[in-house]
Amino acid sequence: MIDAAFTELEPLTSVTRACELLGKSRATLHRQRNPKPAPEKEGPPAVQAAHPAALSDAERAAVLAVLDSGRFAGKSPAQAWAVLLDEGCCLCSIRTMYRILDGAGQIRERRAQAAHPPRVRPELVATGPDQVWTWDITKLKGPWRGLYFDLYVMLDIFSRKTVRWEAHATETGDLAKGFIQNAIKANGGARPDYIHAGNGTSMTSKTVSQLLSDLNITRSHSRPHVSNDNPYSESAFKTLKYCPVFPGSFAALHDARAFCEVFFTYCNNQHRHSGIGLHTPASVHDGTAWTIQALRQQVLDEAYVTRPERFPHGRPLAPALPRKVWINQPRPTIQTQEATQIIQVA
User: Fold this and answer.
1) 24-38, 64-78, 206-220: which has the minimum mean pLDDT?
2) Per-residue pLDDT for 232 more than 90?
């Protein structure tokens, strides 16, 4: 439409003025009126003449055989060139060696490389106490720089209860083994189905692995550098170190133990945890939380009957207790997806 209007307007004014009025580019107009001629058909590409100093096929094969020999298979072309030169042999330049290797598809790491298996994403689910425990070790600052105490903490992921904690001057596999044994003893002898931990040397030690195998407990480990694989321990350590009364450092090991005794006793028996319906970890772990939950609901129901105008959104409900918790929510399998589709269709 613009082209038709331009044809009518051009005889009445200049080309430049017509382009301005219609918003048409003069360059576009010029290309339309003066199209570029089609390129003429070219002949076959010229064959590049071989350089007079180029190696022959036989010489290239000889150089490749030397580079692939047992002497130089694990060395770079530069090292192979230097060794041969020291022996009074100059086959070609270093750059030519790279060209020959490139032509043979060998510009890469030619030595055998270690292949690490892919790390498995841990997926653990708990529907009640004493099913999945998780533990980790954190550092507590000592009286001077470079001195730290090691705090071992074992948690039940369903109840959030600190089943056992210990503070030591160091971290070893033997101390970790004793810590796990003491945790089971402190829990009345009841042991979990799974124990999850990080990848520290004590957590992956042979002593700990053998203990869990003897106790018929399945062990699980976080992936390297993935803190989300152990969220309960990480959250507990942050709560500990960001506590308003946390001293920051301890003058001696017994001071650290005294503080942890008060802190974990409070967290287990008095702190109302938001992740477990504002109950204490101890009440969830021993099963009394459901009785407390019923009493809470009874109080709320009575308050609603007495003064319903104070509850404009209807009958209040006590915060619910979790039915299922996990470390990394399990991904749906093909069978689960098919079952979900069948239910939706039905």
Assistant:
1) 24-38
2) yes
What residues contact residue 225 under an 8 Å CB cut-off, 6+ apart? none
What is the rounded distance in angstroms from the CA atom of residue 38 to the CA atom of residue 112? Answer: 54
The pLDDT of residue 343: 41
Residue in 142, 198, 200, 146 with CA at minimum distance from that of residue 171: 200
Nearest CA among 298, 299, 294, 272 for reference residue 283: 272
> Residue 176 class from Cβ within 10 Å (0-12 exposed, 13-18 middle, 19+ buried)?
buried
Reported in sequence order, the residue ranges of the chain that DSSP labels E, i.e. its strands, are 124-126, 132-141, 148-156, 162-168, 194-197, 218-221, 325-327
- Give, in order, the Cα–Cα distances in Å from 134 to each of 56, 130, 220, 287, 310: 67, 11, 9, 20, 43
Give the closest residue to 150 by CA, choosing from 161, 160, 165, 132: 165
Which residues, 6 or more positions from 204, have their beta carbon under 8 angstroms from its beta carbon? Answer: 197, 221
What three-state secondary structure class fits 284? helix
Question: What are 46's two structure tokens?
Answer: 């010229």
CA–CA separation, 153 vs 273, rounded Å?
Answer: 18
Task: Tell me the pLDDT tens digit for each residue of 282-310.
Answer: 999 999 999 999 999 999 999 999 999 99
Hey, what domains does the chain have and what are their CATH numbers? 2-32 (no CATH), 57-103 (no CATH), 121-346 (3.30.420.10)
Contact present, 287 and 190 (Cβ < 8 Å): no
| Best CA proximity match to 239, nearest among 200, 279, 274 | 274
Q: Give the torsion sign (CA, 130, 216, 326, 156).
A: positive
